[in-house]
Amino acid sequence: MAESQRSQVGMQLKQLQLDKEMLALRFQLLLNVDSVLVPSPVNTKLELAVTPDTSAIRKHPSILVLDQQKKISLAQVKLERSRLMPDLLVGYNWMSIEGLGPDNVVYDNSPNFKSAQFGIGVPLFFGSQKGKVKAAKYLEVIAENNYQTGLISFRNELLAASKEYELKNSNVNYFESKGLQNAVDMKNIASAKFVNGEINFLEWAILINNSASIQSNYIEAVNDLNMAIIQLNYLTIK
Predict the structure, then answer these.
(1) Mean pLDDT, to the nearest integer, of 208-229?
(2) CB 214 within 8 A of CB 181
(3) Strand partners, 91
(4) Are residues 114 and 145 in the same domain?
(5) 236 and 181 in a common domain
(6) Where in the sequence is the domain holding 69, given as residue range(s)?
(7) What digits encode the pLDDT tens for the residues 4-25?
(8) Are 49 and 159 within one domain?
(9) 128, part of any domain
(10) pLDDT of 139-168, one tens digit each?
(11) Is residue 237 part of a domain?
(12) Would 5 be classed as within a structural domain?
């Protein structure tokens, strides 16, 4: 039984070493460098860019895009409506003649003849233009609905992400306040008892494995917290 436990620990160690090498290669590919780089473990937790605030979601780029689409639809409706209105036509001409004119008067090249034109342009295809106005109104309603739906969806997503962050942060705080110290105490006690002959190798291996599991769970908790922070930072970017 002890030999089986020992073999299992050895397999886990090999798997961890392989995972470490694979992550190093992925990191190298991400940075597009030739040498293998190892990130510094000084601070493994990310920081929130800003405090989550649902009142600021209208400034998020994705919401601003929906707002811009709404404004474009409104402008299109105004444009199509303007094409239903008659056009006022105004023209002004200023002509000159050089030489003998039809009235037997000799003219120099200075402006001598002026005229003005006034008119009204009426759309010939009035019914067709009304259809374009109606279609533009439908698009305006759709753009407005998309904007309002986007606000609601984004707000709910931000609230859910905030709750997720609180949960993950609470888990990390537990490990940092109690869990990691319990793992250290468990490891020290197991080693001391094994040296004093109070426990056998199998019992020692089980306690050491439990201690390592706590530390592994802490690493996973930090990773989950970082993912929650990344999501919140995206939702609160301006």
Answers:
(1) 92
(2) no
(3) 117
(4) no
(5) yes
(6) 43-86+133-238
(7) 766 777 787 888 889 888 988 8
(8) yes
(9) no
(10) 888 989 999 999 999 999 999 999 999 999
(11) yes
(12) yes
pLDDT in tens, 21-31: 898 888 888 88
- Judge contact between 136 and 189, C-beta under 8 A: no
User: For residue 114, how many C-alpha atoms fall within 13 Å in the half-sphere facing its CB?
Assistant: 3
- Average pLDDT value over all residues in the chain: 81
> Between β-strands 87-96 and 106-107, what pairing exists: parallel, antiparallel or unpaired?
unpaired
How far is the C-alpha of 106 from the C-alpha of 97, rounded, in Å?
A: 9
What are the structure tokens assigned to 110, written together? Answer: 């200075």
Beta bridge partners of 117: 91
For residues 115-137, one letter each, b for 16 or more C-beta atoms within 10 angstroms of the residue's C-beta and e for the rest, the string is: eeeeeeeeeeeeeeeeebbeebb
Q: Who's near 175: CB < 8 A, 6+ residues apart?
A: 214, 217, 218, 221
What's the CA gap between 92 and 118, in Å, rounded? 9
151 with 111, same domain? Answer: no
Q: CB of 183 within 8 A of CB of 236?
A: no
Q: Are residues 153 and 47 in the same domain?
A: yes
What are the tens digits of pLDDT across the range 69-112?
A: 999 998 888 877 776 665 555 666 666 665 555 556 655 656 55
pLDDT for position 134: 83
Asked whether residue 228 is domain-assigned, the answer is yes
Cβ atoms of 136 and 73 within 8 Å: the answer is yes
Q: Are residues 142 and 55 located together in one domain of the fold?
A: yes
At 121 the pLDDT is 54
Q: How many helices (H) and strands (E) does the chain have?
A: 5, 4
Same domain, 193 and 115: no
How many domains does the chain fold into? 3
- Whether 70 and 4 map to the same domain: the answer is no
